[in-house]
Amino acid sequence: MSPTPPSRRRPRGPVALAALLAGAAAASLAVAPAEAAAPGAARVPMHQCWVNGVAAPPGDMVSGSSGDDNIFCDSDLENVTVWGGGGNDMIEVRGLVIDSAVMGGDGDDVIRAKHLVPQNASSMVRGNRGNDVIKVATVVGEGAEHGAVVHGDDGDDKITTGSVSGAPGKFNRGGGIVTGNDGADTIKVGVVDFSGRVLGGSEADTIEAAGLGPESGGLIQAGPGDDTISGPGGTILTVGPHWGMVDAGVGRDTCTVKSVSTRTSIAACEVLPKAAPSAAKPQTPSGAQPAGAKPATPAAAQPAPHPVQPAG
């Protein structure tokens, strides 16, 4: 058998390894996505969302219909808007809400979302019209351009969140904020701190917070209406020891709150917790006998003294 021609011999050793690496690199470039070859091309937002059991196409919009929808996202949302549309919708986002918006649209919607994470823009959850139920893990923003905001909007909404924090930017915009807007809302939040804000809006609202200003500062502002402000389940809300402010607004408001610092402020609360009863020993009314004392013998019951016999 004739020897293998030099042109067809397989290289061995270091030469073979170099050839193998070069071939792998060429193959990876051949199958690279189009944006790798064009760094300036716009990136299409990716997500894993389903609308009524049907996978939503990739893009910056996930939309429901005019009826009752079930929208489920099993991934982070980044630069994506989820819109429930009309009807009573169920929307659940199991990933992070990064520079994105989740909105219920018209109807009595239920929205559940994890953490709001504004990186390059704002992150938002809105109920829009209707009596909505909204649950969000944490609401942490910073400045007007990086706000984390939960809006109940129109209707009697029930909003539950974890901690609320983040200073607003110019004109008091952005930051970390939870607001009921219009309607008689029930708002239950975790600790409000680091300039986080909870706003009730109009009508009679109920606001419960786990704490207010324990490290830096925060604000609870109920607005117009006969509002109720307290800790979880009607317990006493501690304001401080750092900066914190409760402003109940216009109306006859009930505030179950206490201040533990001169740097805190409690305003417009018509009904405050009653002072604890005094532990001093009760005084015995005049003429009354102390408990356990023997009753005095009446004068009429005293034996008459023996008459004095005359001398002699």
Automatic annotation (TrEMBL):
| PROSITE patterns the record matches | TAT (PS51318)
In the record, which residues are listed under signal peptide?
1-36
Task: Locate the region Disordered.
Answer: 275-312
InterPro entries recorded for this chain? Answer: Hemolysn_Ca-bd (IPR001343), Serralysin-like_metalloprot_C (IPR011049), TAT_signal (IPR006311)
User: A Pfam family this protein belongs to?
Assistant: HemolysinCabind
Keywords, comma-separated and alphabetical: Signal
Per the record, the domain of life is Bacteria
Low complexity composition-biased segments: 287-303
Q: Does the keyword Signal apply?
A: yes
Its protein name is Uncharacterized protein
